[in-house]
Structure formats: structure tokens, C-alpha cells
Amino acid sequence: MTQDAKHDELNQEQPQETFISHLVELRSRLMRAALAVIVVFVVLFIYPGASFIYDILAQPMLASLPEGTRMIATGVITPFMVPVKVTMMASFVIALPIVLYQAWAFVAPGLYRHEKRLAMPLIVSSTLLFILGMAFCYFFVFRTVFHFIATFSPQSITPAPDIEAYLSFVMTMFMAFGITFEVPVAVVLLVKTGIVELSKLKAARGYVVVGAFVIAAVVTPPDVVSQFMLAVPLVLLYEVGLICARLVTPRRADPDTGDGTSLTEHQ
Q1: What DSSP assignment string belongs to 82-122?
Q2: Residue 262: is its pLDDT beyond 70?
């Protein structure tokens, strides 16, 4: 075999080895993230217990039901599986910083230095905002919406919600509000990476308001209260994102006026 043939063979093997090494690294990161969730799940399952965690999740609904009324389970294994699913959801939320860190550690070697500096604050802010969105949904939205629905319930009806349907509703709402509270991060990321100019995002305010109410109408139950509680924070958080994006955008002196203007606005 000639020297050139050996050189070509080595060049063909290197990309394959690099791809396999990336797959091994990805598997390692996924296993660490899954292990973190499993460890938290085992701890929560032992103490305080899956039933206790579900009872906490069910408090907003139970508070709106008539005194002495409980939720029902129509499935044979539902009383066991639903608390387990709730505990798994709580475990994922608690382990979310570790999961996001593993994702960041996997992509970090391919990032530039300035991108690495941006990654960690985004991970921390994304985690805090997602948890804040879930907390807002649990402590404020659930209590308000369930009380609003209970006031319109006829006296001849005794509500007895199914725990599986309640869990599905809760998870949908948690995801909706958690993602909604990520809007400032998305806006900052779009401006910081130069994908969209800040001036264009400001000009799109009207479309954002309309889109917020459309999204709220699709995601939330068909009542005005829950739709407003999702749409209004979405619009307000968009404005917060614009303010944060203006603060993190580098500023330079305008040659005509001498005033500092952001690079995004100057363009």
C-alpha cells in the first residue's frame, strides 16, 4: 500500500472515530442525567412518599370542592400509578439543573469562549424561570381557576374529578406556564446571537399580543380567566425580555450624535 493510500484511509477513519466518540459522550451525559432523576425519585418515593406529594399537588382542586368531597380513581392501578407519575415529575424538576448542566457539558467543547460565558447564565435563568412559572400556576392560577369554575357549578351536581384527568390537566398547565416564563430568555438569546434585531422585536409587539391570546385559547381550558392568566404574563414577560435584551446588547457611540446606542438598534 502506498503512502498516499494510507493517508486517505486515516482521513476516512478519523471522522468515524470522532462520531463514535460523540455518541459515547452523549450516552454518558444522558446516563448521568437519568441517574440524577432516578436518585431524586427514590429519595422522594421513600420520604415523604408518593402519596404525600400527590396530596400536595391536589390541594388547589380539593380546596374548591364541597366539604367532604374527594377525587376519584376509575382505573384499577390508577391510585398507584398517578402518585408515582407525580413523584417522577417532581424528581425531574428538582434534578433539572443537573440535567441542563449535562446538556451544556456535552455541547460546551464546540462553543466559542463568549458562547460558553453565555451558556451558564442561560441555564441558571432558564431553570429558575421554569420553576417560577410552575409556582405561579400552582399558587395563583389553579386556585383562581378552580374557584371560578366551582362558582358556576350547578347545585344539583356534585363534582368528583378523576385523578388521572387531573394529572393530565396539571402537567399541561405546568408545561404551558413553565415555557411561557422562558420568553425573556428566548428574546435575549435571539438578540444576543444576532438572529433578530431588537428594533424588529419591538415592532412585533402587536403580533405578540394577538399570538399570546391565541396560544392561551388553545392551551388553557375554555374559560376567560385561565386564558387571561396565561396571555397577560406572556405579553409582560416579552416586554421584560426586550428590556433585558437592551441591557445585554453592547453599546457604542453614535458618530452623529455622540450618544451610546446599542449595536442592534444602530443597524
Answers
A1: HHHHHHHHHHHHHTHHHHHHHHHHHHGGGS-HHHHHHHHHH
A2: no
